[in-house]
Amino acid sequence: MSVPKFDALKVMRDLSQNFPSRARSLTRVAVKQEMRKEIEKNQKHLGETMGIQPGDGELFINGLHIDLDVHNPFSILDILRGEAKVLEGLHNLGIKGEHQAKLLRLPVNTVDDSYALDIRHPAIMWMNDIENDQVYRSWPASVQELLRATFPGVIRQIRRNFFNLVLFLDPLQEETVELVKLAELFYKHKIPLRIGFVFVVNTKDEIDGFSDAGVGFYRLLNYIADEYDLSQAVMSIDSIYNKVDVGETLSADTISAYMKKKYPKANQERILGSDSEYDYKRKDGALFYRKSGLGALPLALFNGVPLNPDEMDPEELETIILQRIMDTTAAFQRAVFTV
Asked: Where does the UGGT thioredoxin-like domain start and stop, copy by copy (predicted)?
């Protein structure tokens, strides 16, 4: 700290590369009490907010976290060049000083032409709730956990609904079986992902759940939600589709057999028949789907943003969703860092 500013980096490099030979002379350097307190304060703050302990090292450039296990000197140089272009642009606009520093921390990623849908729609049946479900109670809830150091590729388990996946499904399509099982896989492995379903079924006023498996499926979910609770209804989706093999579709016989085994005392005619009292909100999913203007089913929204049709392959979707979580985490990290 006693050397001129333009020599500081040179001295730091010399000390880090030749520490054993410099250690003895360093022990003789008197450290001011004021500086000692500042270092201890910084260590405490970094440890509590980012999980950075004394001796650890992290690199941030204008609020952007640089993973040194991923980046090399050349990629870091590209980042610096990009930041320099932004700095030059701000300078040309006459923005300097504190305002310039604040603007530099803002994300400047190219905005694509995608859009996001409001995922608070009542037609969505949520499978889980990261913030309120008991199974996630042991997870930390602070947004500062986003800045805590982890191993590369590790998804942080934070008790917040940061990541949301909504699947628009026709219960009678073959792809639905694999997509439901993928959702079950995410849930069982405790991926920090809130999962919701929008079931698009037949909207005819008078229809029999014994002849239309999609309608029967929806009425059964309403029955379970009414007689037991919504969480059990949503979890039963997995149980029902576990009776359907990949490559096959859901049938009315499958639903009837499931009811006989799971709810033997239930009156199937009253639940699945044309005069069912459990037919409410059946049209909501189809109405939401039509108003959204989305393409052919099945569809998925990640945090409200529709996935491309070529991303809906069940074999590839798992990797795509996990990558979306990692990419979105980086954006959240920068937002938290700049607050």
From this structure: 7-105, 118-337
How are strands ordered across the β-sheet holding 305-306? 125-126, 194-199, 164-169, 299-302, 305-306
- State whether 103 and 135 are in the same domain: no
In a domain, 113, yes or no: no
> Does residue 36 sit within a domain?
no
Structural domain boundaries, residue 289? 125-334
* 32 falls within a domain: no
Residue 328's nearest CA partner among 294, 305, 298 is: 305
pLDDT tens for each residue of 216-235: 999 999 999 999 988 888 88
- Residue 107's pLDDT is 60
269 and 153, same structural domain? Answer: yes
- If asked whether residues 185 and 285 sit together in one domain, one would say yes
> pTM score, two decimals?
0.69
Angle formed by the axes of helices 230-241 and 252-262, to 10°?
A: 120
